Amino acid sequence: MTNPHLSLDQKIVGDIYTSGESMENLSVLCDDFGSRFGGTKGERLAADFIKAKYKEYGLSNAHLEPFEYLGWERGEVKLEIISPIQKEIPCITLPHSPPVTMEAEIFDIGPGAPNDFDTLGDKIKGKILMTNSEIFPKKVKRWVHRQEKYGRSLMAGAIGFIFVNHYPGYGPATGGIGDYDSAGPIPGISITREDGAFIQRLAKRKGTVKIRLTSTDKLSKMTSWNVVGELPGTVKPEEIIMLGSHYDGHDISQGASDPASGVVAVMEAARVLAKYAGKLPRTIRFVMWGVEEIGLLGSYEYARAHADELENIRFYLNMDGAGGSPSKDINLHEWPSLQDTVEGYRKEMALDFAIGQAFHSASDHYPFLLKGVITAGIEAVQITRGGRGYGHTQYDTVDKVTLQGLQDAASLAARMALRVALEENWPASPRDAESVDKLLNQPDRTEIQAYLKRVKAFYKEIA
Ligand SMILES: [Zn+2]
């Protein structure tokens, strides 16, 4: 097969693989600015840094788009076993956990398979539910997200939530709770696998474990920013190809792999594509999302504020953690009409990534998918792991990310964006509301859809 874009490909690939810029940028974001968690000084520094880099690289219209949201700041927390023994256990609260003082018994549901919440409902009521971070509990065939385990605990009448990291040696794992832009109605904390196992042994040997939980986290209105820059198209500037990643990490972490490896890969694609701006008939827009980690807030805000532009988005490629992803595949969020096109691109680029056809709701493509936008992600098509590993822990640090991983993601993104921008026979158009509804309610999603409806109504009722 001949490659119609061979000479541009050679320049782009050559430029990316002979530059260490992406790793430099990763160190600035993580080592200089820290977690970049919503509300921290480093968050704003990161937004300004990305904007300045957009300008340096020659992007147009580089700017911040501010938005308000319900922010959360970590306070002090104390977890004490008060019966059958007395012992303090180290723990962290989960973002959007409300401040509390409470005493209650623990109910251990294990990995948290959806069915167990239904059958054990009576035993959960009035207790603090304990579960772990396994993503396929009891071999359930879909990712059972922390938010779902929390939501099911809530609906079963739990008054608190303990999330046990199922990996040894990684400390506690964090992650937001609650319903997007609102606090969780019950407190959520996280403990290590080792302390979780201690509590299980204690319960087995000496009976029901009762704890006291005291926390002082603060909830308040905050401002975050989406960071936007673009290469305007020369022929059809109104048609947009978008690349993006969130830039906030969790406050206990550098968030190097998730998400900063994605941020710097998007920046690197921007840097090299800017050199060929005059050859791009359509606009390529680069957007870094604020506060994804506590509810995809930046991308939801963007989809709301830019509602009249969404139908002009040809393709959104989400790159959350793409540079650190174990494989750089293109996962199309159920766009079979694009399969042949992307297979063709793969062939002409002489690459061997997998092409997926599935979607999930756990990153910034989702607000756009809900509006019918054609979305995809650079992510592993086959999830071979049982969880996030060091992700969402204090060990997601710069040393886990390789320069080649960043280059691979940047190069793939730049070459894909180039192709979609030049493509005259783009065989997909956005879904209308009815098609989105059909997508969400297909037969193998019955269980998750039923849960989502229930929990949405539940949150509404208690609001
Ligand atoms: Zn992420």
In a few lines, what is going on in this structure?
The protein has 14 helices and 16 strands.
Q: Can you walk through the features of this model?
A:
The chain is α/β, with parallel strands linked by helices and 463 residues long. The protein folds into 2 domains: 6-71 and 221-431, 3-Layer(aba) Sandwich (Aminopeptidase), CATH 3.40.630; 75-216, 3-Layer(bba) Sandwich (Glucose Oxidase, domain 1). Helix content is 35%, strand content 23%. It contains 14 helices and 16 strands. It has helices spanning 6-17, 21-32, 41-57, 114-119, 121-124, 146-155, 193-206, 256-273, 297-305, 339-349, 366-369, 403-422, 433-440, 446-462, and strands at residues 60-73, 77-83, 87-89, 92-93, 100-110, 128-132, 160-164, 188-191, 210-215, 218-231, 236-246, 282-289, 313-318, 329-332, 355-357, 375-379. The protein has an 8-stranded mixed β-sheet with strand order 1-10-12-11-13-16-14-15, sandwiched between helices. Strands 3-2-9-5-6-7-8-4 form an 8-stranded mixed β-sheet, with helices on both faces. The protein is globular. The protein starts with 5 loop residues before the first helix and ends with a helix. The mean pLDDT is 96. Bound molecules: zinc ion. Zinc ion is lined by residues 246, 258-259, 292, 320-321, 363.
